[in-house]
Write a structure and sequence with these properties.
CATH class: Alpha Beta
Distance between the termini: 27 Å
CATH superfamily: Metallo-dependent phosphatases
Helix content: 25-40%
Number of helices: 10
Bound molecules: fe (ii) ion
Structural class: alpha/beta
Number of domains: 1
Strand content: 15-25%
Radius of gyration: 18 Å
Amino acid sequence: MRIAAVGDLHCRADTRRNIAVALSGVDQEADVLLLAGDLTDHGTVEEASWLAEELSQIKMEKCAVLGNHDYEGGTGAEVKKILCDSGVHVLDGEPWTLNDLGVAGVKGFAGGFEVAQLQRFGEEAMKAFVDACIAEELKLEKALFQLRTRHRVALLHYSPCRQTLEGEPLEIFPFLGATRLSGPLDQLRPNLAIHGHAHRGALRGATRGGVPVVNVALPVLRRLGEAARVSHARRLTPLSLRRAFRFQSFTTPPPGAASVVRKCANRSNESAQTRARTVYVSPVMA
Ligand SMILES: [Fe+2]
Ligand SMILES: [Fe+2]
């Protein structure tokens, strides 16, 4: 199973065509495309329709979660329906499977990290804020628990760990994710957790329990000029799958996804056998 993933496409009138460029060729490189939220810029029906149009050109399985921007217009349900009608599996706490791959998808929420994590104490507004994160945590736990596939991926918009936020202003860390989201990951141990949302964050991190975490927010990928690769061979055990995690870097930002694919192929020193089970995780937009 070959996985491609990207978040934060932020589809709007002036970016919709770039999305087609960014995703060009991804259906040749991967079996499934995971979309980590903020798919639209302001969560409007119009933006969702544009995105659905662009995504429908890509003939592969697509699975997504929504991000905070997708709720901005107050029409999150309509955004979800438009994308679902176009063939995207939009998850909000449900498990989704494709052959031996299982995806547990939730948006997640904010709340902060480790000892500084926001606690359910004091004003009702504060309790409601923490409750929103706990609700996402429970949905993630339930979705992961239902997966019986050999390989399991957690797909979120908010980050479950602190490391992938490095590069963001420290002051906004609490609004970019929550350690609370890592509880189900460390307990039920998917092979990988993917998120977006942290545009200025770092690519790689891990939960406290060692579950690998990748921030596939498009601006991160553009800035780093990296095409990330994840090995996901059918015969690999979860442990060897984690070991097989690999990324490929470029010294200059590639001009577009097609170039990324080309550079991956040209620069790769891997054997044909290894290459066949390796897929870049992130299309990079010009
Ligand atoms: Fe975003
Ligand atoms: Fe976001």
